[in-house]
Amino acid sequence: MRAPSLSSLVRQILLREGLEEQGDLQEDPVQFGEAPPDGRAATRPGVYAVILEDGGTSIRVLSQPGMLHLPGGGKDPGESDEDAVRREMMEETGHLIKSMKFIGKANQYSNSVKYGRMNKLCSFYLVELGPRVSNAVDDEGQLVSMPVSDFLAVPVVDTWDIGTGRALVRSGSQHVASHQMWAVRTALSQFQHSAPA
How far apart are CA 53 and CA 109, in angstroms? Predict the structure, then answer.
């Protein structure tokens, strides 16, 4: 019996999860969350890595109490997206990157202790992990592998704030930010369209 192709495995996941196929990349970033009532929020450019493995059936994410999230974070002034993804991967996972492909852009409003109210302007990349060459420097959670179908079933948080974060930790359940869930779904759709039959 012949093993199913990568594209058929990804198509099965998309159909099982009720995800529609997406065409070309969007022109403008998708916006998640609600702007603060007074409309004032700083902007913070950032980058994140979507790490699909095993033919698109598993994903690697960082796990913290109350939250699953993609490796990544804010860009330094003058830093390219690609350099920022490489730096964030080293800081948060200790891994080098073999390859990366742009997925798309999505923004999310949040309110953090460190940065206050902000709109995170995020670029997402599909990343193939290289070897692990060091320990993670940032304490952003443990890098775990899980079935994509399990990740897609995790509830999303549309606007992240301090109170929501504390409530999620107390609840003991895991959540993911809506802009990061969008990136994983978009990556799966693109992966399905580009995978050899």
Answer: 29
Q: C-alpha angle 102/10/152, rounded to 5°?
A: 80
Number of domains in the chain: 1
**What CATH code is carried by the domain that includes residue 48?**
3.90.79.10
- Pick the closest to residue 103 from 126, 120, 80 (CA basis): 126
Nearest CA to 48 out of 190, 186, 194 is that of: 186
- Give the Cα separation of 188 and 191 in Å (integer): 5
pLDDT digits 0-9 by tens, 9-43: 555 554 554 444 433 444 688 998 888 888 888 99
Between CA 8 and CA 11 the distance in angstroms is 5
Give the residue among 193, 64, 176, 76 at the shortest CA–CA distance from 126.
193
Query: Are the beta carbons of 54 and 128 closer than 8 angstroms?
Result: no
The pTM (predicted TM-score) of the whole model is: 0.81
Q: What is the residue range of 139's domain?
A: 6-194
Domain membership of residue 1 (yes or no) is no
Q: What is the DSSP letter of 4?
A: P
